[in-house]
Amino acid sequence: MSSHREAPEMAKDPVADGTDVYAFVSPDRPDTVTLIANFIPLQKPDGGPNFYEFGDDVLYEIHVCNTGSGEPDVTYRFRFETRIRNPKTFLYNTGPIADIGDETWNRPQHYTVTRVRHGNKSVLGTGLACPPVNVGPRSTPDYASLGAQALHTLGGRSVFAGQRADAFHVDLGSVFDLGALRPFNEAHLISMPAMNGVNAVQSYNVHTIAIQVPITELTRGGARPTDPLDPKAVIGVWATASRRQGRVYDSKQGRYVDHGPWVQVSRLGNPLFNEVIVPMAEKDRWNAVGPSGDVRYEKYVNRPELARLLPVLYPGVFPNLAAYDRPRADLNAILLTGIPQGVVPGFQNYTGPVQADMLRLNVAVPPADDPNPLGLVGGDAAGFPNGRRIEDDVVTVELRAVAGLTIPLVDPSYTPDGAASAVQDGTTDTNAPLLDAFPYLGLPGGGYQTEPGTTAAS
């Protein structure tokens, strides 16, 4: 959550597990769009000596659809290569790393970026350096500098791949304890004292792939729309990870060797879609297919399990939601087709009748001067579900939508329950502050600086 350990098989393969996807018009470069895909969830910063890194055996991709088909029209592919400088030491680094080219870093990673547009491949950059992870003040004494050295310019584009602080926030410990929300503990079927939410992602890092490209590289026909009602202004975005079809352990080499074509094992578009909408028995299948076939999951969007559970878990709090027995056309629009023109005045991010789980971004909506983390439901059309900014509070937005707050957009006869506009898990981003410029995500937590948390059995 957003997509951390969201499916049984992906929970066993964190290197290929996508955690969050972001797509937004860059606030400091509004002629560009920033696309971000995070992988490898819940990284403890002090997890050495084998620290976290991208998989050399994984194909990471960010896809863009500009035709409404749910199929990629533009794809950015990332392949990584790791080497060991000194095979005679167990150490990640043998001294301070002041530069990402220092010989003291024993396990550097580099990568290649390839753009695929309508089947035509173009290599945008090779041998691009990642930064090391944030080991600590002795090993990585100026981590901000190391991160800055890993920013690469590729002909009007910017790209970064490396460790960052996880900006997603959610109270995992409470939500998965029978759907509890700590601020509403007293109203729960199993009542407990109300309290503030606890960010379960605090102090954890992720590995980020970020690319900033001109808007005209992503839109149909290379357009630069200025009218939000222009159909060409809307793009769909999702990310995937793939592995080779076959994997055999070679005892002579002492490692696994991969064979065959690439097979998708992970994908992510809208936050929480596979996590909360798709039933457990179908989650791995969802990860293996593309969004163009998501009509098979329409029934789960139209009648989501969580909407049925809320009135049961919080007796008497959601009577109107409990009585509502129509398909959730509001959620269908938000998650599967985009919001058509006429629902929100002056706005749309409709991609057509093909039902596909994609982040839908209207690139003609300019960045907000004062972003509201509740995005569109908070009156800020530049935020989720119009794409997704890093600071958007998607858990609260989606909880309120599922609780019925957005039903009147398509069914004016419905009156939301009072709690629908207040429900939340009560968390905020408690990791490093976001940056003002690309790649925007904050610096990762350091291993030496991290203090273990506390646990209790009862």
How is this structure best described in words?
The structure is a single chain. Strands 3, 4, 5, 6, 10, 11 and 12 form a 7-stranded antiparallel beta sheet that branches. A 5-stranded antiparallel beta sheet has the order 1-2-9-8-7, with no helix packed on it. The chain has a domain at 10-303 and 355-366. It has helices spanning 143-149, 172-175, 273-277, 280-288, 298-302, 305-313, 319-323, 329-337, 394-402, and strands at residues 18-25, 32-43, 59-65, 74-82, 109-117, 120-129, 152-153, 158-165, 205-214, 234-250, 255-268, 359-362. The radius of gyration is 22 Å and the shape is globular. With 458 residues, the chain is α+β, with helices and mostly antiparallel strands. InterPro entries: DUF4331. This is DUF4331 domain-containing protein. It comes from Nocardioides aquiterrae. Pfam families: DUF4331.
How many β strands by DSSP?
A: 12
% residues in beta strands: 15-25%
Helical segment tally? 9
Q: Return the string of H and E elements.
A: EEEEEEHEEHEEEHHHHHHEH
**Global shape:** globular
Give the biggest sheet.
Answer: 7 strands, antiparallel
Q: Label the structural class.
A: alpha+beta
Low-confidence stretches: none
State Rg. Answer: 22 Å
How far is it from the N-terminal to the C-terminal residue, by CA?
24 Å
Overall mean pLDDT stands at: 95
Tell me the helix content: 10-25%
Organism: Nocardioides aquiterrae
Protein name: DUF4331 domain-containing protein
